[in-house]
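Hey,

Quick one before I head out. I ran the complex with iron/sulfur cluster overnight. Inputs first:
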Amino acid sequence: MNLLHINDLHVNFSTKAGQVRVLSGFCLDIEKGSSICLVGESGCGKTIVALSIMRLLPENAQVSGEIQFKDRDLLILEKEEIRQIRGHEISMIFEQPASCLNPVFTVGDQIAESVRANGLCKKNEARDAAIELMRLTGIPSPKKRFDQYPHEFSGGMLQRVMISIAMASKPALLIADEPTTSLDVTVQAQIVELIKDLITKFGMSLLLITHDLGVAAELCRDVAVMYAGEIVESGCLNEVFRHPKHPYTKALLRAISDDGLRPIKGSVPELTNLPEGCWFHPRCPFAEDQCRLSKPELKNGIRCHLWKKN
Ligand code: SF4
């Protein structure tokens, strides 16, 4: 059963340079209890998907399509209704936890506030509930650390604080946007383990946004590969990573192969000036005339005219 159903989502930004098309007919389904990651180079629209779900896009964004969450279209809900869902039924964690926390309040107060906002316990019980969340997310000596400020925490510990806040409501869907990117490798592995434990323990669905294919493989069952604001390949992560079919997915996987970094040739197209035909054709080693003339549809999870041939 789908928890989230995104259908034909288009997002444009009005800028001085004109209309910038950042998402084009984006579709995605997330089943209850499942985990999916969006991967692709910077600027491919991964974070815009997350911000669209949370209704946190800037005011110059024009959005159309539908985002059904538990059979309610998030795009047409009133502001108060979306506030009831955001941070309660859908929570999000970000790459830079320090920038999401208020430096003048203790971390404990900020977690307790999140508990209170969810109405899950009485005001005088919020401190205990917050300490329990800190324990759950592996923050050592939580009673003592409750009264400390964000600047007294390391990057890894701050991400645990953000996860505590996100978990205060036991959301049905957790969106994690590059949750480990700013952390060193050892701490990264710990945070990945923590997220894995929590989604299993609470039966949450996970939407992971990452450019780190290793983290994606650790955490997710399914994958959607994005290029220039649309999905070019999707499916079961093990299958896609072992037997990629789209030339862009192949290039992305080759780029992090064991024999060293091999950057993908060319650069991401400007979203104000997308090429005719397949948007990947200027970088694709297999491009033929057909690719320059007509844009491939996403069929059976692959957006490529020639994938069977290559
Ligand atoms: Fe490459 Fe053509 Fe496939 Fe596009 S449609 S990815 S240019 S082979």
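The two ends are 35 Å apart (CA to CA).

Talk tomorrow,
K.
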